[in-house]
Write a structure and sequence with these properties.
Blueprint: H1 2-22, E1 44-53, E2 64-68, H2 82-90, H3 94-97, E3 102-107, E4 117-125, E5 131-137, E6 144-152, E7 161-166, E8 168-170, E9 204-205, E10 232-238
Antiparallel strand pairs: 1-4, 1-10, 2-3, 2-5, 5-6, 6-8, 7-10, 8-9
Length: about 240
């Protein structure tokens, strides 16, 4: 038995080593393939907004179209923001467009005359549940404006349209005196925004223009500047 062990044990050890070497993990000899990360391409969502001025002699200040997912540009019965006041008294929409709630926006290039139509396009990435708000001043008033607030666009598919007429609101920040020097439009060419507020200080429905023709002797407005609701017609179409 001694001779058997001494003769064959070394040979068995060598064979075992060879067998173990042959059973090594094949994965160690292969390159690990890492899958390429999926490239997510942003999807643009675009809306075409067409605004028609329905008034007789009330040019509309450059129209502000804003997409947002929180907040609102105004609330009936609540005080107007300084941004809204600036637009409603002087037609300057720059502060509205710069509000923190804004996720995308576009502005008309110039005032929109009576009977005129303008189409604006606003685009946002990867968001189909945005709200749309629109605001523009009736420039032959002290602080009258019209527009849309918090319109839900989530139900619009590509090619769908939504339309609405707009009412006239009073920012409640400047008294409706119609006096010379207080109206920024072509009827007067007066002062626009003034920080001091001298009215009810809340947004409400506009009671309309009185005018010199109706007995307000200090008014620079005539019956031509009177307006009925609605003031504008808006069509929103999802383009992509």
């Amino acid at each position: 038995m001694k001779n058997f062990k001494s003769k064959y044990i070394p040979a068995l050890a060598i064979m075992s080593s060879l067998i173990l070497a042959g059973c090594s993990d094949d994965d160690d000899d292969k390159d690990v393939v890492t899958p390429e990360p999926e490239v997510v391409v942003p999807v643009n969502v675009s809306y075409e907004v067409t605004v028609t001025n329905l008034t007789n002699a009330q040019p509309l200040s450059p129209v502000a179209v804003i997409l947002h997912d929180t907040g609102s540009l105004w609330t009936i019965g609540e005080s107007a923001s300084t941004a809204l006041e600036t637009m409603a008294e002087g037609g300057d929409n720059s502060e509205l467009l710069a509000l923190e709630i804004v996720t995308a926006s576009v502005s008309g290039a110039a005032p929109l005359g009576s009977g005129a139509t303008e189409t604006l396009t606003v685009t946002i990435e990867d968001q189909t549940d945005a709200m749309l708000s629109l605001a523009t001043m009736l420039v032959n008033t002290n602080d009258g404006f019209t527009g849309l607030s918090n319109i839900d666009l989530s139900g619009l598919s590509v090619g769908d349209t939504w339309s609405s007429y707009t009412s006239v609101y009073d920012a409640g920040t400047e008294g409706n005196s119609e006096a010379e020097g207080t109206i920024p439009g072509p009827a007067d060419g007066g002062t626009g925004f003034e920080a001091e507020r001298d009215d009810v200080d809340f947004v409400g429905m506009h009671s309309g223009v009185v005018s010199m023709d109706d007995g307000l002797a200090t008014s620079v407005l005539t019956q031509a500047h009177k307006f009925d609701n609605p003031a504008a017609y808006v069509v929103i179409k999802r383009m992509e």
